[in-house]
Amino acid sequence: MRKKKINARKILSKKGPEKSLLLTLKRRAGRNSSGKITVRHKGGGVKKRYRIIDFGQKRIDQPAKVLALEYDPYRTAFIMLVEYENGEKRYRLAPDKIKVGSTIICSEKTELTVGNRMKVSNIPVGTMIYNIELMPGQGAKIVRSAGSAAKVLANEGKYTNIEMPSGEIRRVLANCFASIGTVSYPEWRYVNLRKAGVNRLKGKRPRVRGTAMNPVDHPHGGGEGRTGIGMKHPKTPWGKPALGVKTRKPKKWTKKLIIQRRKKN
Q1: Whether the Cβ atoms of residue 104 and residue 66 lie closer than 8 Å to each other
Q2: Number of C-beta neighbours around residue 4 at 10 A
Q3: What is the pLDDT of residues 97-126, one digit of tens each?
Q4: Considering its fold, how many domains does the chain have in total?
Q5: Number of other CB atoms surrounding residue 20 within 10 Å
Q6: DSSP code for 220
Q7: Which domain holds residue 164?
Q8: 145: which residues sit within 8 A by CB, 6+ positions away?
């Protein structure tokens, strides 16, 4: 299995990215504005350019043709290059089983076709959706990773109940937009990186176990040979409880929109 490869990328177009839709992001390697490391294990990696993705709906009731399916180094899913009738080109998240040459449209109510985008209140119950807005006009915020999809459960007044990929059931404002289908590249979860060097190319640095450190570096450190962590519950390098501790704010404003929390495996 070490050198096994997933041939899902054979559907991608044999072209380079659209230069007008590229950005060069400054590398921060997990550091904040003052240079302090706030996210560990980041650094290095190959050069890559950011693709400007249209997560909103800038063009309402204007059909667009899919010109190409492309790889995006900044996300797990594939993206598609679409062109409107006036010649404007944009990148969007590609749904699974979309083909080059297809026509998609964003409208308040339209055909139930893969890639089309409409208000969740007009989407039939049981339909799989992705790229979902949380607030009208702000653009899609959730269900954007490879192979993920949510399901429309019910329409109740100004809210629509949807089932998230995690199993959580929550309410979304009925006038929010969502795309029809499932996010592309569901085989992503089966990709084998083959060796540690592939992670380094992605900008991920090695992670060292706390038990392999000295007591001065980690609460789990110290001891002779391969010993345990020496405490009842695991801790972070800074002494805070880890693994299983709830980190969600108890008074978060979106709590009232959650009908049923996700089920832990």
Answers
A1: yes
A2: 9
A3: 899 989 999 988 888 999 899 999 999 999
A4: 1
A5: 9
A6: T
A7: 7-188
A8: 75, 76, 77, 183
